[in-house]
Amino acid sequence: MAIIKTGKVVIVLAGRHAGKKAVVVKTFDDGSGDKKFSHCLVAGLARNPRKVTRAMNKAKVEKRAKAMKPFIKYINVRHIFPTRYVVDLDLKKAVDEADLVDAERKVDVKKDLKKLFTDRYLNQKDVTSEKKAQGSTYFFQKLRF
C-alpha cells in the first residue's frame, strides 16, 4: 500500500471510530505478530474541538479546544480511507508501541496525544508549507456527510 504513508490523514470506515479522522503513525505492509494482514497504527480524534468563531477571544478558543478526545488504534488497511491530505505531526516520538499493550500506559499516551493535537490546533498558522497547513485544517474539522 504505497498510498498509506506516515502522516497521511485517513477516515476510519469500520468499528467504534467509523467516520472519524485519524493520522497514520506507522504502517505494517506485510502484517506482524498476531496480525497477519496489512494494518497500520493510527491516532485520531474521537471527539473534535468545538466550533470557533472570529468573535471569540483566546481564552474561549482554548477552552473549546479542550473538548478534543484522541484515540490510538491498530486498524486493518481495508478499514481506512486515505484522503489527499497530509499532516506534519511528529507522532512517532509521542507514541511508543510498547506502551499500547498496557491499559494504564495507553492512557498516558492518549494524554500526550491530546497535548500534541491541542498545540497543533491552537498554532495552525505556524505550519511551514501550504499543503501541510491544509491537511492540518482538514484534520481538525468535523467530517460532514
UniProtKB/TrEMBL annotation:
InterPro entries for the chain: KOW, Ribosomal_eL27, Ribosomal_eL27_KOW, Ribosomal_eL27_sf, Translation_prot_SH3-like_sf
What CDD domains is this protein classified in? KOW_RPL27 (cd06090)
Q: Which SMART domains match?
A: KOW
Q: What Gene Ontology cellular component terms go with this record?
A: chloroplast; ribonucleoprotein complex; ribosome
Every copy of the KOW domain together lies at 3-30
Q: Which UniProt keywords apply?
A: Chloroplast, Plastid, Ribonucleoprotein, Ribosomal protein
Gene Ontology biological process terms, A to Z: translation
Query: Where does it localize?
Result: Plastid, Chloroplast
Gene3D superfamilies recorded: 2.30.30.770
GO MF: structural constituent of ribosome
Which PANTHER family does the record associate with it? 60S RIBOSOMAL PROTEIN L27
Q: Write out the similarity annotation.
A: Belongs to the eukaryotic ribosomal protein eL27 family.
Please give the name of this protein.
KOW domain-containing protein
Origin organism of this chain?
Answer: Craspedostauros australis
